[in-house]
Amino acid sequence: MTARTNIRFLRHGEMVELSDVDPNETVLDYLRLREHSTGTKEGCCEGDCGACTVAIGQMENGEVKYQPVNSCIQLLGSLDGKELVTVEDLTSPASPNGTLHPVQSALVKHHGSQCGFCTPGFAMSLFVLYHTDGVPDRSQINNALAGNLCRCTGYRPIVDAAFEACSQKAEPRNSGPFSLLSLGDDIFIGDDNRFFASPASENTLARLRAAHLDAVLVAGATDVGLWMTKQLRDLPKIIYLGRVGALQQIEQTENVLQIGAGVTYAAAFDVLGKFSSDIAAILRRIGSTQVRAAGTIGGNIANGSPIGDMPPVLIALDAQIELKNQTGSRSLNLADFFIDYGKQDIQADEYLANIKIPLLADNQHLRCYKISKRFDQDISSVMAAFRFTINDGVVSDARIAFGGMAATPKRAVRTESAINGLKLDDAVGWQKTADHLNEDFAPLSDMRASAGYRMATAIALLKKSRIELAEQSHTRIYGDAYVA
Amino acid sequence: MLREKSRHKHHDSAVFHVQGSATYVDDVTEPIGLVHVAPGYASASSGKITSIDLDSVRRAEGVITVLTASDIKGVNDCSPAMGDDLILAQDEVFFHGQVVFAVVASSRTAARKAVKLGSIEIESLAPSVTIAQARQSDETVLPPYQFRRGEVEEQIATAQHNIKNKIDIGGQEHFYLEGQVAMATPQEGGGMHVLSSTQHPSEVQHCVARMLDVDEANVVCEVRRMGGAFGGKESQAAQWAALAALAARKTGKPAKMRLDRDDDMIMTGKRHDFQVEYEAGFNDKGILSAIKSDLYARCGCSADLSLGVNDRAMFHADNAYYYPSLEITSHRLKTNTVSNTAFRGFGGPQGMVFAERMMDEIACRLKLDPLDVRKRNLYAKGRDVTPYNMQITDNISLAMIRSLEKSSNYRTRRKVIKKFNRENTILKKGIALTPVKFGISFTLIHLNQAGALVHVYTDGSVQVNHGGTEMGQGLYTKVASVVANEFGIPAAKVKITATTTEKVPNAAPTAASAGSDLNGMAAQNACIIIKKRLATLAAQKFDCKVTELEFADGVVTGAGRSIAFAELAKQAFLERISLSSTGFYATPKISWDRENVAGTPFFYFSYGASCSEVTIDTMTGEMRVDQVDIVHDVGKSLNPAIDIGQIEGGFVQGMGWLTTEELVYNEQGRLTTHAPSTYKIPTATDIPEKFNVELWPSKGNKAATIYRSKAVGEPPVMLALSVFSAIFDAIASLKPGSVPKLNAPATPEEIMRAVNAMDADNE
Ligand SMILES: Cc1cc2nc3c(=O)[nH]c(=O)nc-3n(C[C@H](O)[C@H](O)[C@H](O)COP(=O)(O)OP(=O)(O)OC[C@H]3O[C@@H](n4cnc5c(N)ncnc54)[C@H](O)[C@@H]3O)c2cc1C
Ligand code: FES
Ligand code: FES
């Protein structure tokens, strides 16, 4: 089968077909430099400010669903099969000044803009919230806005606008001819030296991976995007994973939850959130709604970062991963995947296929804590995950993993064994195990936190997890709305 | 009085904002042949430049030319006053991020990628980075300055109680959402047209003219709006405009320079960080008899606006409190870091952090409610002379505090919090109610002037232009309302136009909160001149006196007769009467003799008060703001919606400064928090769900400002001091009588440091 050599997406209700797609071209550059649509702004070009927010429409069960993404770090090629909605699309052009979209009129009415530079991004985040089912409460609004920075207003008027606009029933939107976009074929734009490839099957993926060991796999591009925009790296060969169906699967058997490596945080939220409210609380705080709409759990693992939030959680849960290449597959403990800083157990021809998470037994309890300077969209200074198996008030098996405490996400092996056998209400006994954390970890100081604070906080979180379990109490400054 | 009909309901650009059609510099349709400029800098923070090798830069794809200091024919300086800020470094670098060369290329990406190929060698010297290092080496950008009154040392020594302590106060990155940007287009005859995102178009114009060695009249600087500025585009927009102009001059092509966000954060100045050492003497009731404070400020590598910033820190080291005897000394330290600059509040916030900390500490020592200590120390009759010898005549602090104390339920909540803290060991709550008093006027007296230009057209529509710039604060909207009101026409009939040095020359920066005070008055002045001419004509027609005429509802009436404003304008045209005028305003009554610490530097004061409640986690240092109540005085508001926006936005910005926003420099003098991934400004979740803001029911500014309104841009930033004090209060609850050693910003780590220090504190 020959691959398609263009991408097709919907724009202003019509299909756009592009065959000149540079592998490094971002959606934002496409909008501002090619289309000359300047409504979408660049505030940071690293996914943090939301000024560049656009909505991406996708057909799901016969209905178009919208998600906000940071166009500054999204690859143009990833738009294939989707609809691109920007601030220019919100106002209906019927009348000379146009009729404002409900989210736009609400922003005007509540004085939601001052300098206005952040406003198109907020309008787009609210547009997505408006088209999301249900009437949002304050914490859902905060969540929808977590990826949009405004330096002028102090947010209150924007939150008010969100309340007003999103309490109405959404007017359905005419997206355009989704049916014209072919979905099931491989895409290859460019030549063997410079290309954007978007395989539609694992077979093609494995073949491309083997043929181009120097190609970069891209899932949500929430890491890779920054290599291009911030490190100014040229990445001539891109293999985009977003259209490989097998990587997007979530399957649950009796004992194991299997999540495809290409599953986004957004797509995994429901199933992982049900798994544990602490996981839901962590997911809620990974990046922003925009980052979670694109970013994948597989990417969070594969990037090997010592400060990724999911690896500690998954290690504490004793997750396994499956790696594949053209010839077969192998499984390993996630904990063993991380060898050293920047070094993971993955071969050049392999890709990460899925993550298998054992479900919690009735006597197993998970506690997760993310510590950062800011509640929303901040990288953890310390990320802690504890899974305790408890029988008759005694810990029979502790699995503890930390992020931000070492060159990789890492288990606290010595501490674990010191805790095994301790009673949950043995505060003094637990207190003593803190010394073992000092043996397990030697954290670094950086701009997020000092080594001393990291260590002290790790010790405090261990203590906190015990108190919360022993006393069945909630000892966090954020209320329940932010936990589940 | 501003009539409701003349008042804009919304920011004039609100609809454009939400549609994405509001045009910022980078959105202007790019001219054909546009070239792009990107800055290059060295890896070191300090030392002699031994070589600059740009060969591979020149050979890189898309590169047209490279700019270095030798390309500058005129003056290589972009400083606001002192002549100590190079546009392009010459022989030496003074901070990490100082621009040494700039690449001009056919695309932005090509320019930025080529920059990376440059190689600059520096004979690197150990940089002086921190306040401690600068104090050690005693290097300053400007001489120290002092206010002193009374027998300070003796008063402190003989007081019933005395304290000696210090506090570190961090700086702040502006994080305007639109980064620094400029586009320059060469004009015939050596002229240059510059679009710049600047608060100070006149300064950009002058800087570009000096650099190109052409007359100021040959350079135009224009700005329709900025995507935020907050002081960061007062002096620091000039360099980028100059580099764009230099590229345009060298290539003969239009040139654009837009900084990448990280470059912007590395290369442009911030709010000054301070260290304050203080002593105070007070009685059993907590009433001060004397204070002594040394304000050490990190100014960075050059003076920039540090004179005014540090003076203002001194002017506000009293906040709303009376110091019978005092010594306030300001030290302006030089470091190998980017030159710190204006930031909303202009030094005032740092001075006030000291004042509020002193109140908190006194209350802590005496085990009094901090609010009572604050009230007892407020300026009052007979206790109304500031440290700079100006008498305060418009004080409303006490009334305001009392009102907020009641409306926020302070006393009841204090009890509830005490109970909460007794019952909870891990989470602790704190509450604080703090006042704000902020002096309005530029303390550099000559800046207190403004010009405007008003045109009336024959269909009765009006264009207004003035020297002020729009950065989101609603200045254009307010001034347009003034014009509509003067002519008695609907707001929609007044067309707002971009600020340009072509229309109003030699303008002051839009700063010091004085934008609408100054430009509103200048525009009103122009309107009055035109109105006088129109009135003379109408009076002739109606056969009545000019004083009998009224301009309202789009009609001019008098002696029982009336004429539409538009018709009158047309008649005036036919009668060959000018329908255009400039207007001018210079703030009256102010004076400042810096040497002798004498005069009236402020036209009036702006007042406010806020009450904040927080919860902290004493195991992790995490903090959450639970509730905020604010009352703020804007006189007779020109636009309540816009004013409330300034209050809320200012508060949240101040809260960020004192909590999550932490600037970290490493030992080599490099800023390590140069991106929004590491530098955290507040998000929607950080603001409290209970956030109540009220305008003070004012009868109008005592000073004769435009329609008796008050400035509102900066003062609300300092309302956030109540958050910082509430965190202090929460920590103080751990051990009554002990004084938390909390510095700003109160990040989780800083809160933990202070919590742990309470354990160690055995006093
Ligand atoms: C604004 C912002 C906020 C963020 N906040 C957080 C946060 O709070 N917590 C956190 O943990 N992270 C955060 N991140 C980092 C990032 O979002 C996550 O690491 C994310 O999970 C990466 O997934 P991705 O799909 O976007 O990866 P990509 O950027 O597409 O890829 C990342 C790396 O993984 C490789 N890769 C991806 N998929 C595979 C695969 N299937 N097989 C082999 N290799 C693969 C890529 O080649 C690349 O090396 C943030 C990022 C941004 C921009
Ligand atoms: S520009 Fe800031 S998130 Fe994209
Ligand atoms: S309105 Fe200026 S950043 Fe939001």
The main β sheet of chain B shows up as: 8 strands, mixed
Q: What fold name goes in the CATH topology slot of the largest domain in chain B?
A: Aldehyde Oxidoreductase, domain 4
Distance between the termini of chain B: 58 Å
Q: What percentage of amino acids of chain A are in beta strands?
A: 15-25%
Q: Summarize model confidence as the mean pLDDT of chain A.
A: 95
CA-atom Rg of chain A in angstroms: 23 Å
Tell me what portion of residues of chain B adopts beta-strand conformation.
25-35%
Number of domains of chain B: 4
General form of chain A: globular
Bound molecules: flavin-adenine dinucleotide, FE2/S2 (inorganic) cluster
Structural class of chain B: alpha+beta
Helical/strand content category of chain A: alpha+beta
Write down how many β-strands of chain A occur, each being a DSSP E stretch of 2 or more residues.
Answer: 20
Q: What is the CATH C-level name of the largest domain in chain B?
A: Alpha Beta
Task: List the uncertain runs of chain A.
Answer: none
**Order of neighbouring strands in the sheet with most strands of chain A:** 2-1-5-3-4
